[in-house]
Amino acid sequence: MSMANTERNLKHLFDGTEWNVYDDSVLNLGVGAPGPDLLENCCDIFDKATSHRLKYEKEKNLSYLFQYGATSGPVETRNAIATYFSSLYVDNPVKSEDLIITTGATQGLHFVLSTLIDFNGIIFIDEVTYMIALDTIKQFTTLTVIPIKLNKDGVDVKQLEQVVQEKRFQSKTKTFWAMYYTIPIYHNPTGIVFSEAICQTLVDLAKKYDFLILCDDVYNILNYTSKLPSKRLFSYDKGAGNIISNGSFAKIIGPGVRVGWLELPPRLKPILEKSGYINSGGCFNNYTAGILASLFEMKLAQTHIEKMKCAYKERMLHTCKVLELNLPSSCEWTQPQGGYFIWITLPSYADANKLLKLCLQDEHIFFLVGSRFAYNPAIANNCLRLSISFHSKEKLVEGAKRFCTVLKYFLKEGK
Questions:
Q1: Would you say residue 248 lies in a domain?
Q2: pLDDT by residue for the chain (415 residues), tens digit each?
Q3: Is 23 inside a domain boundary?
Q4: DSSP state of 190
Q5: Which domain holds residue 148?
Q6: Cα separation, 121 vs 175, whole angstroms
Q7: Contact (Cβ atoms closer than 8 angstroms) between residue 272 and residue 264
Q8: Helix axes 352-363, 393-414, angle to 10 degrees
Q9: Which of 73, 162, 239, 286 has the fewest C-beta atoms lying within 10 Å of its C-beta?
Q10: Secretion signal: which residues (predicted)?
Q11: Does 310 lie in the same domain as 273?
C-alpha cells in the first residue's frame, strides 16, 4: 500500500493499532465515527452557513467571529443548542445560560478534571468505558481510579456506595473530592441504557456524599426504538448541582467540527468560567461555534442530524438482524436501543485478541477487543465491540456475516 493511500485513510480514523486497519482491503468495524458518505453533506451545509455568518458579521460591522469570544461561547450558539435539544428533551429543557462551549466531549472531560476535582481525589469509572476517556483520566497520575461493576440496567450502585463510603474525604483544594464518569445512555462500549431506578439512585448518592457525576451524553438523541430520547441523568438532579452533562456534535454532525458543550448546574458554572484555562482566551472555539449558530438558524443542522440518525438506525437494525440469525448461542449480546455500538461477550475460555487475528487473517475484518475499554484489561479479554457508524448498511451486513462465520469456526476449534 502506498504512503499516499495510508495517509488518506488515516485522516478518517483516530485509534492507532499495530494492525494495518487502514488498508482498503480491511473492513474496520471498530471506528466510532461517522463514515465519509455521511459527512459528504457537510461540505455543502457548512459552505452555506459560513457565507451566511460572514455576511452577517460584515453587514453589522461586528467581526465578533474573529475575537476571543465570550467565555461561555457565542450566545447565538448556546441559544441554538438549548432550543434544539429542548425540543427533544421534553422532560427537562436545556437552558442557554447553563452552557459552556467546548471543543468536544474529551476536552470537556479534561476541563472538568482540571478545574473541579481534587488532584489527590478519586475517579470512579464503569468497569468497561470509553477508551479515550480512560486514557485522559490516566494522565492525571495523582488520581486514584476505581472501576465499578456494570449490570444490564447500569452501574452497580450498591458497590459504588460501598466504595464511596470507604474512600470519602474532605477536599481542601477543590469543589469535589471525587467524580464518577459514565455514559448512561447508549453506553460506550456496551450499548446499555441506565434504568430510571439506577439514575435516581446515582443522583441521590452524589448529593448525599457530595461527589460529581460527569455524563458523556453524546449518543442521547440517537434513539432507534422509541419516539423520544431516554431521560438523561442531568434531569434527575433537582437543584443539588452534582451532575454535568457533556455534549458534542462529533457523532451527529461531524467530529472535525470540534464543537461540544458542558451543561452545568448554576453552582458550578462560575467556577469553570473563572478558570485560567478558559478565562484567559475566551471561548474555546469561537469561530466554528459562530458558524454552527448559522447552521441551526438556517435549519441545515437539524436536517443533517436527522439524516445521520436515519442512516445509523438502518445500519444498527440490519447489523443486529444478521447477529440475531448467525451469532453462536454461546455468545451473549443485547440489541442496543440506540447509539453506535454492539458489545459481544464470548464464552469465558475465548480470547478476543486471538479471534481478531483470525478475523484479519481469514476475512480482513477488524474490531476493537474488550480489553481496550477496561482499566483492568483481564476482565474483558473475552469481549469485543462492533461499531455501526462508519460503513454503509451493505458493508455492515456483509461484514457481520463474515465475522459470524469466523467466530463459529473459532469457537469450534477452541473447545
A1: yes
A2: 343 444 444 444 554 544 444 566 889 999 999 999 999 999 999 999 999 999 999 998 888 999 999 999 999 999 999 999 999 998 789 999 999 999 999 999 999 999 999 999 999 999 999 999 999 999 999 999 999 999 999 999 999 999 999 999 999 999 999 999 999 999 999 999 999 999 999 999 999 999 999 999 999 999 999 988 999 999 999 888 999 999 999 999 999 999 999 999 999 999 999 998 888 788 999 999 999 999 999 999 999 999 999 999 999 999 999 999 999 999 999 999 999 999 999 999 999 999 999 999 999 999 999 999 999 999 999 999 999 999 999 999 999 999 999 999 999 876 5
A3: yes
A4: T
A5: 56-300
A6: 11
A7: yes
A8: 120
A9: 239
A10: none
A11: no
Residue at 42 is within a domain: no
Count the neighbouring beta carbons within 10 Å of the beta carbon of residue 70. Answer: 18
How far is residue 32's CA from residue 395's CA, in Å, rounded to a whole number?
16
Number of domains present in the structure of the chain: 2
Write the burial class of residue 329 (CB in 10 Å: 0-12 exposed, 13-18 middle, 19+ buried). exposed
Asked if 155 and 163 count as a contact pair (C-beta separation under 8 A), the reply is: no
Q: For residue 293, what is the domain's CATH number?
A: 3.40.640.10
| Closest to 398 (Cα-Cα) out of 307, 332, 328, 326 | 326
Specify the long-range contacts of residues 41-45, CB closer than 8 Å, at least 24 apart: 41/304, 41/307, 42/253, 42/254, 42/257, 42/304, 45/295, 45/300, 45/301, 45/304
